[in-house]
Amino acid sequence: MVKICCIGAGYVGGPTMAVIAFKCPDIEVVVVDISVSRITAWNSDQLPIYEPGLDEVVKQCRGRNLFFSTNVEKHVAEADIIFVSVNTPTKTRGLGAGKAADLTYWESAARMIANVSKSDKIVVEKSTVPVKTAEAIEKILTHNSKGINYQILSNPEFLAEGTAIQDLFKPDRVLIGGRETPEGRKAVQTLKDVYAHWVPEDCILTTNLWSAELSKLAANAFLAQRISSVNAISALCEATGANVSEVAYAVGKDSRIGPKFLNASVGFGGSCFQKDILNLVYICECNGLPEVANYWRQVIKINDYQKSRFVNRIVSSMFNTVAGKKIAVLGFAFKKDTGDTRETPAIDVCKGLLGDKANVSIYDPQVTEDQIQRDIAMNKFDWDHPVHLQPMSPTAVKQVSVTWDAYEATKGAHGVCILTEWDEFKELDYQRIYDNMQKPAFVFDGRNVVDPEKLRAMGFIVYSIGKPLDAWIKDMPAVA
Questions:
Q1: Is 420 annotated as a binding residue?
Q2: pTM of whole model > 0.85?
């Protein structure tokens, strides 16, 4: 029986291993993590992450051929294939601060593998890592090898949160990079055989190590670039009276461009886009390619611009001050159908409003109050370290309240900001919301969820990103 061990029980390790166990009953899969609370949650009825369809998959396999354990060393020693999906945060100090990936957790995982292994291993990079990480890991393993052979493979994760289980069941492609040696090819084939249980042969791509590592960074950079492109156009739409939805639809009708990832919004979030692009920028700089680095850096600059532009719109529309005013925030996750708040635009929007002394009332169907308070109080990049190494629960920001109901959040508010495109926000009774708000009542739709005309008919002053501006907002200067 092939034994697989995955180090790291997060958003990548948990779902990926659950699906491998589900699709390969003949393989024993163990997910290990040093965080006791996280492993306890994986072994309970309340899984540590929310992902549609994940519960069913885990419940079918758990205890059969899928196990979650804190006994890291035992399971690593027994495994034939070791997946490593540990955090790779952006460095906050030292060489490459603010751009380079911090490989501390990766390196300690590699050293631990070298310490406990008694048989040959295939080590698979699952986390997003900078190009050439495999080389570093290889050196650590071979210098500590005690006669054991290691093969390093890169098998980057392309799943999207909110649809992760579907993405794993029917991936566009599975990418496996390995050394172009007889042993390297054999290792690639071993991993290929695992995926071949359910993924068609022509969807499993094999490349060299560097191509696989770089393909992941490039794919995320291209996706984020599309969002920043349409967001840049949304600013021009507002200035000229064009409608960004119509423009994006017309553009997306071109089969070479296609319609996906062309929704204008308050900005992109998630754990990967910003981190991967910063990483790409750093690699370009290190390889003497400043023009390429600046090109990709601009994608992040536009994203930051879009978030600050949104906050400026709110403040300027409301008589240039939100001090002491209640502002309702609907949605805190970075997108619908996930409870993930990593790098969500809501953090920057809320911080911007709090900086102007607003009272913020937040509702999100999947994010806990504790998580929201942590996110607002945490420094940039802190979220990407294991929980026990994050700052202790910071003191709650008292201008922030978290409710479990959209109507409660909006009661008595001067303005409502929609920051996540949860389906339920389309179905809300906006007349009821309007009746319980201070007047004039504002809606700032950061996801183009609502029909602005319907809301204007009720009496709302509406700002929708990239849509023709309300007469009221036109008269207010938007540039802070």
A1: no
A2: yes
